[in-house]
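step 4 of 6: structure.
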Amino acid sequence: MAQKLPGKDVVIIGLGWTGSILAYELTGAGLDVVAIERGAWRDTSTDFPPSTAPDELRYGVRLDLFQRPEQSTLTLRNKMSQTALPIRQFGSFLPGNGVGGAGVHWNGYTYRFSESDYKAYSHNVARYGKSVIPEGMTLQDYPVSYADLEPHFDKFEKLLGICGTAGNLNGKIQPGGDPFEGPRMSEYPNPPDQMPLGPTLFTKGAKELGFHPFPVPSANMSRAYTNPLGVTLGQCSFCGFCERYGCGNYAKSSPQTCVLPALMPRKNFELRTLCNVTKINLDSTGKKATGVTYVDGKGNQFEQPANLVLVCSFSFNVVHLMLLSGIGEPYDPVSGKGVVGRNFAYQCTSGVQVKLDNRILNPFIANGVGGMALNDFNGDNFDHTGLGFIGGAVLQATQSGGRPIQQINGFSDDPKWGSGWKKATKENYQTIYALGTQGSVYPYKDAYLDLDPTYKDPYGSPLLRLTFDWHENELKMSAFVTDKLAKVGKAMGGARIQASPRTGPYTVVPYQTTHTTGGAVMGDSRETSVVNKYGQSWDVSNVFVYGSGLFPQNAGMNPTGTVGALTYFSVEAVKNQYLKNPGPLVPV
Amino acid sequence: MRRTLSRSLAGVTIISASIYMGVFLKGAAAQTTASPTDQQMIADGKKLVDANGCAACHTAPNAAPFSGNVLGAWNAPPLLNNVHDGIGSWSVDDIATYLLTGHNAFAEASGPMGDVITNTTSKLSAADAGAIGAFLKSLKGDGAVAREPIAKTNPQMVFGARIYANECSACHTQEGTGAPNLFPSLKASPVVEADNPVTLMQVVLHGAQSVGTASAAAVAMPAFGGQLSDEQIADVLTYIRNSWGNAAPAVTAETIKAAR
Amino acid sequence: MVGKPIGRRHLLISTASFASLIAVRASADTYSGFLPWQANRNNLPPQVKPGAWIYFTPEEAAAVEALVDRLIPADELSPGGKDAGIAVYIDAQLAGDFGKDAGLYMQPPFADGLPGQGPQSPLTPAERYRKSLAALDQYCHSAYLNKAFADIPASEQDKLISRMEAGTLQFQGGVNSKAFFLLLWQNTKEGFFADPIYGGNRDMVGWKMIGFPGARYDYRNWIDKHDQPYPYPPVGLADHPNWTRPA
């Protein structure tokens, strides 16, 4: 029997980027806020100081900072006709865990999608006609525009102290930045990072080809920075242990380095760790949430009443909780009706290895981002006429380290073991540079999330089931952009190039990216979305959803910038409209 | 000296007040606020220092007032304008900022001073904090006692430099400057050059969290007691006490062992 | 003591009752009004040192030492896998969380599935080593006049490893030689390149071979020194030979 606790104004499920920003903003508005987090408290000097952080086995291979599959996992199948099996060991994506969430272990790429990405359906139809949308693709517009989000991107970038060079300031194209980006109201708060050799050669090669390389907007500080919350970050020291790792010297933006030091001292904020929310509770009408039920580490069950429920956990967990709580109609791929679980999308990545004879790359001198990119083949920045696909990818030179178990590059015909392997490995270590793409993934009728009929989680609830495979549009896109990237590799001075465009079927085994999106998508209509443009449930108006689960589809860039902007966009409406007059912010 | 003091006093009220509010006005409003005379501020500061009992901690028994003290595992550094172990490098603003926020370009407060800042000095008005700064800057130094740093070729310095480059520089920087409000400077730090380095040993052995105030967040340093030997800690402390213009007696492994 | 990762919890999982959900790291923690921090909480993992085998039997240890010494043979680039401590590393890993599949989802039913659905074996890595090494020695006993894998010539060992890699070596008892090769090779690379604190990469020989400076954290003075070799030797988390003054 659940023990009922005293009520709170707001309950936040998961204390990562979105949860900590919301907690800060709403405690600042005077509300009594409790955050319930499945993992443990984490802080820089305890959990990943410089003296213990550079440990590839512990963090990179054994995944110390990540969700354990035994806590929660999902089942996978490529097609609806197959039987899904549990992901027993995470591989292709790695959900975060604990205070700070994925904001602890991320690299720090902080892009804004291009203007047309937020209107992907109407833009592509207007330019190429309706026939450009393949059968089964459920592409739709975001219910917000780039212009709606711009001030919120600005706020998020200043919170994090993003390092970069503006490419478009108030409509004026700036030298050295990304000419394809939407207009920005202000320059990045910090200058770009210094560039190691690899990105420097990429810049030279890309310019020779007439492309437009720019420094990737990075959350790895190029200098010490104090953010508007009064929290100071240090300068990145290029240790080469960034993604999968916590930052030891306060130099990577994270909830720990940007928000929590200002949030935690507040008396009207409370954090409960090692507590897993199992259900959002509804009243008898089913239209109002009364709070959440959670289970602590001892198995004790509690009911936490609250006026407002903010769902801030990782995208899969958001969808899982919505389905378990009966909020919104579950998606049915056969009839196409229902919305929860619909429009799951991912990120279509690919790589190019470039052999740079007689170079000394020192790959271990790197940070999470610290590199260059170009958007010439992203979104609709290029003419897709006759190409047979829509969408695109950012092309990047951002190798994030030279950690030897996981990051030594090599060609597929290199010896696999023995003395030959040793010789090749030694040579390759300093001379092969890895380029990569982050490609868009558009949604399909048969790519979705629902509850698994067989496998259960530790609380007895069905696991989430993912049905996903690559579609022709994405595979053609990947082949196209990877070929362009290989040309840049050649122009860098590559003596040998090995390009690996994405191929099917989708597999959970090698790591690809943790950019999973959709399932709780936002939109203008309750027929095609779970929540409105503020992340507010169409069905239960005191439940708001955050994170990449909101994306109707994924663009060809890392999602965190958009996640942050959507969060600030929503919290402004919560503070200025919802709190004054609780109820639907958009007419149902 | 006198001219430097006057110059830093002129804008102290405005600058400290603006830091306190988290807004940097860059002296634009300076003309609109009449600043009290130097002597008035010093007198006001003395009253505040006396009323708050600063001397009680910062003076050893039977020693000259404000000449520093050791309280258990923590230094209460001299509040005199000593070059090495006092606040000779700090301006009036630096002192005011430290009292109000617990942090400045040189130092991060932790230990007992952290509590003093939480409970008392962070609640001072900017003018009062400036007055305390003015008073402390009016105190004499130790006459710039010349100290010679230990030679770079000394084995403790050689080994200490290697340890520093790997375990310390990622935060405190290779130049020992740290970062304002985040990583304390090891250069021109009263705690680093204290004759009896108790605070240094405490912080390195066990770690420490600096105080958090409304305008500057708390930061923590990890413990090294479980990772470095007595000799390694002695070497790295000797190194930082004798680099970047610092000069202070060597620390021995026996001293570290006793402090564990 | 390193904060126990959640993977070390022994979750007794019941699909029927919350009451049986037991975790070693028990109750919830509640924080309000302060930024949590405690002294002396950051520490290194325990140092693995060579000595008596923890998981392996002497026969298994001999086979693994022979295997890793062929996968990473001694040559002018580095000592061999055995002298690099790779078997010591694997032994400690199999005795620990990794060997137990701690933290992974191990609920039934188990089915083979498609390769893209990831590992589906109910056997833990420790069990897979035990069965596979027994099958390997059993094969050698019948093919090489009662000799164990460790006792056959290096050239024959290489041939068998190649056949395991290709999946053409048939073991008895349904043991998949290719799957074992992949597991062994992954662990061998880990043992060659992981921090020496875990028992392998002895004297940082793996890092020295490729020029990886190890557990360093500040390269700011070398970012723009393009094409210039990094001049300082590697350091480990607890392995820094030039930090201790000669007695």
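step 5 of 6: annotate
 - Chain C has a mean pLDDT of 89.
 - Residues 5-239 of chain C form one domain.
step 6 of 6: archive
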